[in-house]
């Protein structure tokens, strides 16, 4: 299987980087091909242009490879922090520019907004870290990122198997807690992307 892993955190010493590292190593141990994108390391440009929005010309060279990867991938895993109930702007821009008609959903007919999700065979996971205690997150904010990922993105694109993981509070966590979270992530990844069996 070919799996895309997208990381969006500017600090390469962050727990997000540790999570992404665990995800990548687990996938490789299970025999899968991994395409890893550290959006900050790649200096991805999140700004969509008017011609892109209006589909007036060919996709920019920097965007086309991401789109082609999604078309052939079996799964996607996203790792990012919770910033004001949203994901970092660089990831929002990536979704805006890459999750486009013809890639993740069908191109609507003229004068219509009806589309069909194209990721029916996809397995996807969003892993989010936060400093807000879970009780406060649910009571005051309603965990908007879960709705965004599971309904607005994965659901809209007809992802077959979607998972959302919310790890909190990272700021107050101990080393043992983080080790435990990494173990949980490893178990989830192994269950969603089982070991690849070679043909004899």
TrEMBL record:
GO terms for cellular component: cytosol. One of its GO terms (molecular function) is NAD(P)H dehydrogenase (quinone) activity. Keywords: Oxidoreductase. InterPro entries: Flavodoxin_fold (IPR003680), Flavoprotein-like_sf (IPR029039), NAD(P)H_dehydrogenase_qn (IPR051545). Residues 1-178 form the Flavodoxin-like fold domain. Belongs to the NAD(P)H dehydrogenase (quinone) family. This is NADPH-quinone reductase (Modulator of drug activity B).
